[in-house]
Structure to design on (190 residues):
């Protein structure tokens, strides 16, 4: 009986080399960009839905409160713009960062304990280069020096807070390179 059960539960040969978990594939789907949704309701609405769906919070330009409940989004068709994103402990990942394309009012982004955020994700922040003023990247274990160096495209950035980035190996050299490429930005690496 035991041999029948182990034979049935044995993974197919094609999956033996696969190191991705089921949750990785689920997270990929939760981050997919829906181009039809963007065309129908706009980039800001689609981006807000993405952030909330993955456990983050957003603040609109016309409010002082953060929204974390998907059901509290304004009615579809409302002309609202995202001003701030707090993605603390969220499951956002690189393929979802294309949602920022077309969001022209995002001034603040917090990426704290976002373990799925990696270099590819940070490279896509160029979508926010005209509006982003404040960026926090802390306790994101998949971010390396390469990802931080990609932030050099954020020419309007005024404040950059970095901390607890275990995969960054050359802290000082990376920060110096960023200071050279964004001289008007106050960079703190704790």
């Amino acid at each position: 009986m035991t041999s029948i059960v182990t034979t049935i539960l044995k993974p197919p040969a094609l999956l033996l080399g696969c190191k991705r978990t089921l949750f990785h594939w689920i997270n990929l789907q939760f981050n997919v960009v829906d181009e039809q949704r963007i065309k129908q309701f706009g980039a800001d609405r689609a981006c807000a839905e993405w952030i909330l769906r993955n456990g983050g919070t957003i603040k609109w330009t016309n409010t002082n409160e953060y929204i974390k409940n998907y059901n509290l989004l304004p009615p579809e068709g409302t002309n609202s713009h995202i001003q701030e994103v707090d993605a603390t402990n969220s499951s956002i990942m690189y393929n979802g960062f294309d949602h920022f394309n077309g969001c022209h009012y995002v001034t603040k982004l917090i990426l704290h304990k976002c373990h799925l955020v990696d270099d590819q994700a940070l490279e896509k922040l160029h979508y926010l280069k005209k509006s982003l003023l404040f960026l926090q990247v802390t306790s994101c274990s998949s971010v390396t020096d390469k990802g931080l160096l990609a932030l050099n495209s954020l020419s309007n950035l005024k404040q950059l807070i970095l901390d607890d980035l275990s995969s960054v190996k050359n802290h000082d050299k990376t920060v110096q390179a960023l200071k050279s490429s964004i001289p008007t930005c106050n960079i703190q690496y704790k």
Observations:
- The radius of gyration is 19 Å.
- Helices lie at 2-9, 22-30, 35-41, 43-53, 119-123, 145-149, 171-181.
